[in-house]
Amino acid sequence: MKTKNFLILILISVAFTSCSFFSEKENTNYVARVNDHYLTFEELGNHISNNLSYEDSAITAKSYIQNWATDKLLLDRAKLNLPEDQQNDFRELSKRYEEQLFKKAYKDALIRRELTKEIDSASVLAYYRNNSANFKLNEDLVQLRYLQLDKKMKSLRDIKRQFLRFNPEDMLSLQEKSLEFKSLSLKDSIWVRISDVMTEFKENKNIELEKSELLKERNFLEFESEDGNDIYFIYINSILKRNEEAPLSYVRPTIEQILLNRKKTNISKKIEKEITKDATKNNEFEVY
Q1: 163 and 204 in one domain?
Q2: Are residues 74 and 159 in the same domain?
Q3: For residue 231, what are the domain limits?
Q4: What pLDDT does 200 receive?
Q5: What's the confidence (pLDDT) of residue 58?
Q6: Is 103 part of any domain?
Q7: pTM for this entry
Q8: What is the CATH number of the domain that holds 202?
Q9: What are phi and psi of 3, to 5 degrees?
Q10: How far is CA 51 from the centre of its chain?
Q11: Could you give the C-alpha distances from 150 to 87, 224, 270, in angstroms and in order?
């Protein structure tokens, strides 16, 4: 804590000595007391940024002290007035929750140590083939590429021809010119949701795309921006409609997560089995 804030805390502690919940002890380690609860300068200092001005530091410190005092007073009143059986229930719940946190943290650490290998492609493909009927699309997908460029570009006709033909040489040429375009996406082998495409153009380019046009395979769209300065080329490569079988590339992340969770579950069961076996062997666990 910087000297500035430390002095502020000293001044605040003096200012609050008339409050009944502040300590009467001459102990510079404490800035406040509520019954048997003590607020230290260190704890208070941890909640005050060194970047604050003198005035803001004072306001922040006073606010924290008041909130801390209110919190402790409420806690003590609750312990004094709530029925003992209810308090015992809370303590039992707290104990169980603490135990669950410890066990989960320990098991997660062991699981992470066991998960040394990534989910391999063969496992993903096998799961996809065995469960393909479960992977039905709930929305329309599209593979497309697009360009946004200045309408006055001199090479506009050549760019359009390359964009439509789109052989490997054309793709490379367009990629090399990417800095000349205002925006582009040439990865037309990636499946994306049609709804996302429409939202992207509407929100970021102020263009309303017709869904019916996006649902036509091998369809080329050409249109100008609202201000007439730019021109857009869109080419629909392929589409998949709702309820059709989802392509592997689209559901791969989902399958990988399923297989990862399955692997974690198996490792968790293995850990529980081994820990009980080892405890029995080492006389740490007995059943009478």
Answers
A1: yes
A2: no
A3: 137-240
A4: 94
A5: 86
A6: no
A7: 0.67
A8: 3.10.50
A9: -55, -40
A10: 29
A11: 71, 10, 62
Residues 201, 258 within the same domain: no
Q: For the chain (length 288 residues), average pLDDT per consecutive 10? A: 51 50 58 92 86 85 93 95 96 96 93 84 95 93 96 91 96 93 94 96 92 95 91 96 95 94 92 89 83
Q: Are residues 125 and 267 in the same domain?
A: yes
* Count of domains for the chain: 3
pLDDT given at position 232: 96
| pLDDT in the model for residue 5 | 52
CA–CA gap between residue 91 and residue 96 (Å, rounded): 9
Q: Measure the CA–CA gap between 237 and 219, rounded to whole angstroms.
A: 7
The reply to whether 271 falls in a domain is yes
Q: What are phi and psi of 72, to 5 degrees?
A: -70, -40
Mark whether 221 and 257 lie in a shared domain. no
